[in-house]
Amino acid sequence: MTKNPPPPPGADPTIKVPPYSFTDFDRRLPMLWLGLGFVVLLLATGRLHGLRALVGLAGSVVLVIEFVIPSILHGHSAVAVALTGALAVMLITIPFSYGLGPKAIAAWLGTAASLLLAVGLAWGFTDLAHLSGASSEEAVLLSASSARLSLQGLLLAGMVIGALGVLIDLTVSQASTVIALRRANPSLGFSQLFRGAVEVGHDHIAATVNTLVFAYAGASLPILLIFSIGGTSLTDAINSESVAEEVIAALVGSIGLIASMPITTALASLLALRMSDRALQADAHAHAH
Q1: Of 144, 146, 176, 209, whose Cβ has the fewest other Cβ atoms within 10 Å?
Q2: What is the pTM of this model?
Q3: Which residue in 286, 283, 282, 214 sits closest to 254, CA to CA?
């Protein structure tokens, strides 16, 4: 409910203006309860790891709100800001969630290299596909409110941030697999560690790519339904900018994801070979708690 302003002087006194008018539903309380349920479940199942992940998540959200959004609104390059913010998020999230050590270093470097590859692909194919970033009403509203904003830059920034979460998931898993193999059999060399972890990574990639593609497909579902009602063919629907943005974002993220697996596995294998038995057992103890 919104309180209506008083009638202006000289207004017709016979016209009664209600004191309040309906604006929108208050959705904050349901979201608060859902958020509390998420926190309780995370802490109950993850315990100390869950608490550390929660602190890392909170720090990442603060970074996005306090750095990424204001920097973009002040006219800085959205791509550069998103990339800087993504690298900073990794510096916060990975150490808080997984501690400091070879596993975290390999995951950070693997994610950073894959993210740079994704940025390059997104930049090149956004130009090749002539994507302007102006396919949504929100983008048009932003362009009207600030002439300094680049809608194409915002589109690229969204692709960067969207790919970050799945990249961290895969790179940390690969680094953990390598170190677990090294701990189980300290006599394994680089090639054996690499091949063993890559076998695990193949299954993980298949599942994660499906997750990424379906996430973008879900975002495009209302648009595809509109095209279907209008009788537009699938090829013409995909050619529309609103759908092409999601397709390119999904493919760019998937390519970065696939590349991150061998990159991170190789880095983790090199670092794992330099870990002492005490360091391997300390990592196992920290993981168990």
Answers
A1: 144
A2: 0.76
A3: 214
